[in-house]
Fold this protein.
Amino acid sequence: MVELAEMTPTVTAAPPALKAESKNVSFFYGAFQALKKVNVNIADKKVTALIGPSGCGKTTFLRCFNRMHDLYPGNRYQGEILLHPEGVNIIGPEVDPIEVRMRINMVFQKANPFPKSIYENVAYGLRIRETNSRSVLDGKVEQALRHAALWDEVKDRLQNLAFALSGGQQQRLCIARALATDPEIVLFDEPTSALDPIATARIEELIGELKKSVTILIVTHNMQQAARVSDYTGFMYLGELVEFDVTGKIFTNPSNKLTEDYVTGRFG
Amino acid sequence: MTSTTDIKAIIRRHRTRDAAFAVLGMVCLLVCIATLMALLVDLAIDGVGRLSPGFLTSFPSRFPGKAGILSAWVGTILVMLVTALAAVPLGVAAGIYLEEYARKNWLTTIIEINIANLAGVPSIVYGLMALGLFVYQFHLGQSILTAGLTLALLILPIVIIATRESIRAIPGSIREAAYALGATKWQAIKHHVLPYSTGGILTGVIIGLSRAIGESAPLITIGALTFIAFLPPAPVQRTFPFVNFDWLASPFTVMPIQLFNWVSRPQQAFHLNAAAAGLVLMAMTLAMNGIAIYVRYHSRKRIKW
C-alpha cells in the first residue's frame, strides 16, 4: 500500500497516452446480455486490472479485446473498442479477428502449452507469421523466454516437452509465447488462479517488469493481486462497470458504495 | 436408533451380497474366456499341422495336401491397401469437417445420426449397393478396386466416428491458445488438432480395417472368385514408369472367402486347411491390433491433458 500511495500522484499528475478505449461495449451470448455499455480507458504501457465477483463479465470483456468470442456461434458485440494510435474499432464486423489477434495476445487462466517442445511453443506465433529463419527464431525465442523470466530455467532443455515443466513454469512459458510476437497489448485472464503463492508472486513480479514494454489488461479474482500489480482498476458487477480509477483510489477511497463493499470483503 | 448389533447384522448382509456379486462376475468372465480359448485351441489343434512355408506360397488346389493360400493372402493385402487408401483420406476429412467447420444445426444432426446408423448396416447390404454402383454403373468389374472401395464404404462410418471422437478429446484451451496467437482454423487443425489426434484416428482406422479383413459377404456379392490360381499383376515393375496399376482390375480372392470355400467342401482334409487359414487370418488381425496399440501408446505418451 505504501508503494501505491507513492505511485498515485505521478499517475494523476500526467495522464498517460491511451492504448485502447472501450466505448459503450455491450456483449450478448445469444439472448443473454453479459456486458452493458462498458467504458474503460486502457493506458499505454500500464497495467489495467478488472475485478469483480464471479459472473460479473470481466472475462467476457477481456475476451472482446482479441475477438475470442468470434470462435463460438451466437455471440454479438455492440459498441466500439478503439485501438490506438490508428483508432481502429477492433470489434467492428469489418475488422478481421485474426488481424486483431496478431496484435493483441492473451494468457489464459490455466496454462495451456501445446504438447510440443518448449522452443516450438514460443516459436509458434512467429511461425504462423511466416518467420522461418532459424537464427531469427532462435533470437526471438530467447528474448521472449528472458522477458518471461524463464530462460535460465529452460535454456539447456529447449527441445524438451513443455509438459515437463511445473505449473508456474508452464504459465510463464505461455507468457513467453504471448510475448514472442511483440504484441501491443497482452491480456491476462486470471493468470495465477491455478498456481501456488510462490509461482503467483513470480508472475506478479513479471507483470510489473513487462509493463515497461507492453500494455497489460488483467482480470483477477484476487483483489490483493489487483492492488499489487495494477495502475488502474475497474470494478465490474452484473455486466456493468461500476467504478474505474487509479488503483490506489479504488482500494483506499472508492467513490461508489458497491465498490467499497466489494474491496472491503463485505460481499463477492 | 439402530443398535450396534443391528448395524453389524446389516453390514454382514451387505458384505455377503458384495461377495456374491464378485463371484457371479468372475464366473461370467471365465465363461467368456473359456469359450474363446476353446475355439482358439480347437482351431490351433486342427490347423497347426498344415501351417508351413509351402501353405503360404501355394495356390489353391483340388488336392488338399498341395493347396495353399498364396492368392488369398496377397488378395487380402491388396484389397486392404485400396480400402485404407480410399477410406482414410475421405473419412478423416469428413470427420474434421463435421467437427470443426460444419455449423451445428438440424442438418448436421441428421447427418451425424445417419453416419452412426451406417456403422450398423449389415455388410451384405454394402455388397448389394456396391454391385449396383461400382460393378454395373461404373463398370469397375469384379476387381480388387471394386472390393477395396466396397470395404472402404463399409468402414467409412467407423473412420469418421473415430476421427470426430479423437478430435473432440482435444481440450478447447489448446485450440484457443492457437487461435489467440492468430492462427486460422486450418492452421489450428494442421498444426495442432490433427497431430494431437493422430493416435486416436489411427486406432479407429485399424479397428475398421480389422473389421474389413474378416468380411466375406459383401465381396461374394460383388463377385469375388473362390478359386484363383494366379496372382494379380505386380504393382511395381523393372521398366518405366516402375509402377503398374493393372492389379486394380484383376480378379481376386481373399482369406475369408478361401476359408469359406474350404469349409464347405466334404473332405475332412480341406477342413484342416480352413483351420490353418483361420489361424493365419487371426494372426493378420492380431498384428493389426498390435500396431493400433503400439501407435496409441506412443502417441499418447507425450500428450497428457
In short: Residues 4-47 of chain B form the longest helix (44 residues). The mean pLDDT of chain B is 88. Residues 53-301 of chain B form a domain with the MetI-like fold fold (CATH 1.10.3720.10).
